[in-house]
Amino acid sequence: MKTPYWLIAFTIIFVLPNFISAQEIQSPAEFLGYELGTKFTPHHRVVAYFKHLEEASEYLQLEQYGETYEGRELLLATLSKPENL
Question: Would you say residue 21 has pLDDT above 90?
């Protein structure tokens, strides 16, 4: 089942800032160089942004659970308190 793009955007915009200090991270627009939804974002740039978020927060953990046929990473992002990760 595909994850709806609106759910990913909602998570990035509204949920992640509550778990990550705003001083340590770039917004998606700052990181990508354009506002979300105005251009297509390639898979590798989405993955790079989530890795940026993981480095900046102890509340986010990424786990690779597979690869696509083209060799792209399939990631699971878990948001929780550090003691629960």
Answer: no
Residue given tokens 């509204």 in the structure block? 14
59 close to 82: Cβ distance less than 8 angstroms: yes
Place of tokens 């627009």: 29
CB 27 within 8 A of CB 13: no
Find tokens 């690869």 and name the residue.
Answer: 67
AA letter at 85: L
Segments in 1-85 forming alpha helices (H): 5-10, 16-19, 28-32, 43-56
CA distance 17 to 70: 32
Q: What is the pTM of this model?
A: 0.70
Tens digits of per-residue pLDDT, 31-83? 999 998 899 999 999 999 999 999 988 889 999 999 999 999 999 999 988 88
Reduced to 3 states (helix: H, G, I; strand: E, B; else coil), residue 33 is coil
CB 72 within 8 A of CB 45: no
